[in-house]
Design a protein that fits this description.
Elements: H1 3-8, H2 18-27, H3 37-54, E1 64-68, H4 71-74, E2 78-82, E3 85-90, H5 91-104, H6 114-131, H7 133-142, E4 145-149, E5 152-155, H8 161-174, H9 180-196
Parallel strand pairs: 1-3
Antiparallel strand pairs: 2-3, 4-5
């Protein structure tokens, strides 16, 4: 059985669905330790639906792009910085992700060149999620309450939700068959043995 056949048959990283990867990502954050897995799955699904719904609004204005080569050691594909608005694109990680796509037989989900496009879309939408009205709208969609006094309710930020929304946005804008979160998980898993040496 080839690696592609095994992966498509339900083994390997692709055996886990995108919502479960989202829930695992949230659960890995210190703020969410001990939270109910069902709540984490709910938040992951809500954040993904929110991010996908942003896609018809169009891609944000292009940002300055700086290509770097130290992404694998930093565990990053790309990173958004706000001053000035810039996307740092880690080409070693992009190339490694493209190799994983080929090795696992995921080209149907991630066409050639889509890793770069998805990384740029993901980071470009962060500005909207950090500073625009979408930040409040995402909080409302998630419905996590920080404080309630009678009928007054203060919504809380859900750490990691913006990241999941950005992944879903990139998936939708780039027409990918799976969330880029799958690539992030596969990259992390492939890097773990190298870090242990």
């Amino acid at each position: 059985m080839t690696r592609r056949t095994a992966t498509r048959a339900g083994t390997g990283p692709a055996a886990v669905d995108d919502v479960e990867y989202g829930a695992r990502f949230l659960g890995s954050l210190t703020l969410h330790e001990g939270r109910d897995p069902a709540l984490l799955r709910h938040w992951a699904a809500t954040a993904a639906a929110f991010g996908a719904a942003l896609a018809p609004a169009g891609t944000p204005a292009p940002l300055r792009i700086v290509e770097r080569e130290d992404g694998l050691e930093r565990g990053l594909l790309a990173r958004y910085t706000s001053k000035p608005p810039t996307v740092e694109l880690y080409m070693d990680s992009v190339d490694a992700a493209e190799r994983l796509v080929a090795a696992y037989g995921w080209r149907e989900w991630f066409p050639a060149g889509s890793v770069r496009a998805a990384a740029l879309a993901h980071e470009a939408v962060h500005e909207r999620l950090h500073h625009g009205p979408e930040r409040t709208a995402l909080k409302e969609a998630l419905g996590h309450t920080a404080l309630r006094l009678g009928r007054l309710r203060v919504l809380a930020h859900v750490a990691g939700a913006e990241e999941l929304a950005a992944h879903a946005y990139a998936q939708s804008v780039c027409g990918l068959g799976r969330s880029p979160l799958l690539l992030s998980a596969a990259l992390a898993a492939s890097a773990a043995p190298a870090r242990e040496k």
